Structure prediction request, 262 residues.
Amino acid sequence: MKLEEHSEDIPGIPAATLVLLRDRPQTAPEVLMVERAAKMRFAGGAMVFPGGRIDPGDHAIAENDSIIRGATSDAMETAARIASIRETLEETGIAVAFDPLPDHGATMQLREALHEEADFGAMLASGGWQLDLELLTPWARWKPNFKQERTFDTWFFVARAPDLAVDEADGGESVSSRWASAQRVIDDAEAGKCSIIFPTHRNLERLALHQSYEETRIHAEAHEVKLITPWVEEFEGEPWLRIPDDAGYPVTGEKLTKMIRG
Prediction:
């Protein structure tokens, strides 16, 4: 497979993803991962964090103060937070940042309605729910720009899993889901037990540095979110895929040949 760089000014498809964490006693927190269906054009068969495109409906909700609180000064970031909540509910059946928190039955009804392309904002209003966007902390923003994949401009957020979280893949875009420590997912990928793409790998390495959700959140708040677009450069006669050194990531490069084989 040959990677060719896009022009830097090509806009990405706006998207959002949610890094959902739950603390475990005496061990590292677990992160929720979903396996994308092999048929999917982007990252087919890979383990990823739940997420997807930012829809017009997310922007409409962002302008409705009656069903959200904690809107940011950046309208796109606000819409991205909403999209990450909506996509996580649709893909995994977990309602994040809802106030009040819906019970399991209501959550499943909300999820089914999303599968039928119902209006998320209307569902929130009719059910008397608000989204507390302050429960999501900005983590990163990535826009890989290689021709073998669609170009997505993706916001990443971290959040604590609600106490009632019961995950189940939707059987459409995602075919399975699992909770595991970030390091366990990395180890499984290195052993060939699962597949992860470059941005997921780098973010799992960063998550693996921390021993609790709160520690992860504090780390996120200490690092300004900058748009990360990996680039290729030669190092010791071999091409490497690189990211900036000042964005909070412990590993900032990987041999291109290793990444392609993976």
Observations:
- DSSP finds eight helices and 14 strands in the chain.
- The helical segments are 56-62, 75-92, 104-115, 120-127, 182-190, 198-207, 213-221, 256-261.
- The longest strand covers residues 13-24.
- The CA atoms of residues 169 and 196 lie 17 Å apart.
